[in-house]
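Today's session is about reading a structure prediction critically. Students often jump straight to the picture, but the first step is always the sequence itself: look for stretches that repeat, for charged clusters, for runs of hydrophobic residues. Only then move on to the predicted structure, which in these notes is written as discrete structure tokens rather than atom positions. Here is the chain we will use throughout the hour.
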Amino acid sequence: VQLQASGGGLVQPEMSLRLSCAASGSIDRINVMGWYRQAPGKQRELVAFISSSGRTTYADSVKGRFTISRDNAKNTVYLQMNSVKPEDTAVYSCNVEARVYGSLRYEDYWGQGTLVTVSS
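Below is the predicted structure for this chain, in token form.
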């Protein structure tokens, strides 16, 4: 399973940005899809995740500003980032829990990360 993230870049405070992450490969089913981020000098933290049924969970720091969604037909997860702040600056990585054809187990897969820089 390969994950390709896109949409990062430089954005001004209070503006918006949308990240995408498409999963490809011999995917039978995807369970949870999520976004994590790691700021310089800090540990990686969960931003948000969405279950196969569409239930969402967010970090307190992004509640009300970020929205996670998924398109199951495209095996893609999105992160709509509104009202961004300088403290949102980080490398954002997508993560999926997926099962490939021929396997009975779900495994975690990670994308390569996309840098988001919030600065005026």
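Discussion point for the tutorial: The mean pLDDT is 96.
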